[in-house]
Amino acid sequence: MPKKKTTTLFEDSLAEIEQLLNQLEQGDISLKESLKSFERGVNLTRICQKAL
User: Fold this and answer.
1) What's the mean pLDDT in 17-26?
2) What is the structure's pLDDT at 14?
3) Could you report the per-residue pLDDT of 25-51, keeping only the tens digit for each?
C-alpha cells in the first residue's frame, strides 16, 4: 500500500475513533449504540495497528 494512502487511512481512522470516544464520554447514547460504537472503535484500532 502506498505511504500516502496508508497515512490517510490511519488519520481518518484515528479521527473517527476520537469522534466515537466523544460520543461515549457524553453518555447520551443508548447501551446498544454504545456497544456498536465500541465494536467500531475496536475495528478502527486494528486498522490503525496494521497501518503502523
Assistant:
1) 95
2) 95
3) 999 999 999 999 999 999 999 999 998
Q: What is the pTM of this model?
A: 0.81
Q: Report how far residue 5's alpha carbon sits from residue 30's, in angstroms, rounded to the nearest whole number.
A: 34
What the block records as the C-alpha cell of 10 is 490511519
- Contact between 16 and 44 (Cβ < 8 Å): yes
Distance CA 33, CA 10 (A): 24
Distance CA 51, CA 6 (A): 6
C-alpha cell at 51: 497501518
C-alpha cell at 19: 469522534
Q: What gap in Å lies between CA 29 and CA 23, rounded to an integer? A: 7
Contacts of 37 (CB under 8 A, 6+ apart): 20, 23, 24, 29
